[in-house]
Amino acid sequence: MKIAVMGGDGFIGWPTSLHLSDAGHEVHILDNLSRRWIDTELGVQSLTPMDSIQERTRIWHAETGRRIHFNLIDLAKDYELLKTWLAEHRPDAIVHFAEQRAAPYSMKSDRHKNYTVNNNVSATHNLLNALVELNLDAHLVHLGTMGVYGYSTVGAAIPEGYLPVGIETADGRSVSQEILYPANPGSIYHMTKCLDQLLFQFYAKNDGLRITDLHQGIVWGTHTEQTRRHQQLINRFDYDGDYGTVLNRFLIQAAIGYPLTVHGTGGQTRAFIHIQDSVRCIELALKNPPQRNARVEIFNQMTETHRVRDLAEMIAKISGAEVVRLPNPRKEAPENDLIVNNDKFLNLGLAPITLEAGLLSEIVDVAKKYAYRVDRSRVPAVSAWTKDIAATVNHDPEGKRLKSVS
Ligand code: USQ
């Protein structure tokens, strides 16, 4: 297949591009390199040293003989350029990662809220709009989030996108229908993915577009089979308070002797997936497109659920790290259960990589190797969800102003 990977320079976009290229597909990356600019804005860098996208693709070609093409295009701002590229190349499939993906970054200020909404919604809409205009029947696979559902459970598993409901009609009959699971976003970033869902529903219904939405959990790990092949193919690995996600942050914190930063009681339960499984799921979704005029296909792209404090305790046990409980900068339920249905990927043959001490220690070792690149002042999560919460945020978990719990 000829596949366009929108956002192919990012944390999942890059290993996905390599994985698909390795599987024999013709891969074209479209990216505006915004994630690299945001590093500059925030004054942070990936824990792992990353080369330019041109250098990365050159090394991939030298190693494997396969070419990955790179195009500097901003989906949100360069509609005509995007349309021209799609008209010329007419890909069979498009993987869409080209969105601002960090909840804390999206909540930093009014400017960051505007940026995240404008960027994410425009990028998605421009893409859908261009597909219709060009009469291009490419299968669109979008990276969504488990966060569209919210995280509370009513004691039943969260289904894969659609919820069966019974409705009493005016004349007393009972009819049943499947509706999109009620959206319940917890940040501006998550809200944009809820808006994306509505755009997909409309374009699938009105124009018959073939769309798959992947509701992904929190990704952990950094390497995939392909990124391991050469040190210059290495993936990015974020540790800072805005872009570092919880499990990877704990692993890096353990490696640099920083207390593990549990927000609140750590009773938040979230869905997780290893990065290697993430790229496998994307390939499985590409191989199983919906029919034209079918409803949007939705998969829950996660393999297990964990409570934040349990993860911290597990990592403390294998690494000897200290755990601190910090005032939570986010507005979220302090404790929740989470049951998620992920049968669709399992039925397609996904054999999940689950969390175990061996794998975690391996990641701590990667982090130790690059520990000299860490700016400790960038570790605390200081982006607050409301102005009231901002006053309580802890800027110095190392100062031991908070009682350590282990
Ligand atoms: N948390 C801590 N300590 C930390 C960092 C986070 O306790 O140092 C807590 C947060 O308060 C939250 C949970 O860990 O309760 C998860 O936070 P996160 O930053 O790992 O994940 P999140 O903000 O939800 O976003 C990440 C990705 C996003 C993706 C989402 C999947 O950045 O792109 O969509 O995970 S999900 O969470 O399933 O919606």
UniProtKB/TrEMBL annotation:
<dbReference type="Pfam" id="PF01370">
    <property type="entry name" value="Epimerase"/>
</dbReference>
<dbReference type="InterPro" id="IPR036291">
    <property type="entry name" value="NAD(P)-bd_dom_sf"/>
</dbReference>
<feature type="domain" description="NAD-dependent epimerase/dehydratase">
    <location>
        <begin position="3"/>
        <end position="291"/>
    </location>
</feature>
<comment type="pathway">
    <text>Bacterial outer membrane biogenesis; LPS O-antigen biosynthesis.</text>
</comment>
<comment type="similarity">
    <text>Belongs to the NAD(P)-dependent epimerase/dehydratase family.</text>
</comment>
<dbReference type="InterPro" id="IPR001509">
    <property type="entry name" value="Epimerase_deHydtase"/>
</dbReference>
<protein>
    <submittedName>
        <fullName>UDP-sulfoquinovose synthase</fullName>
    </submittedName>
</protein>
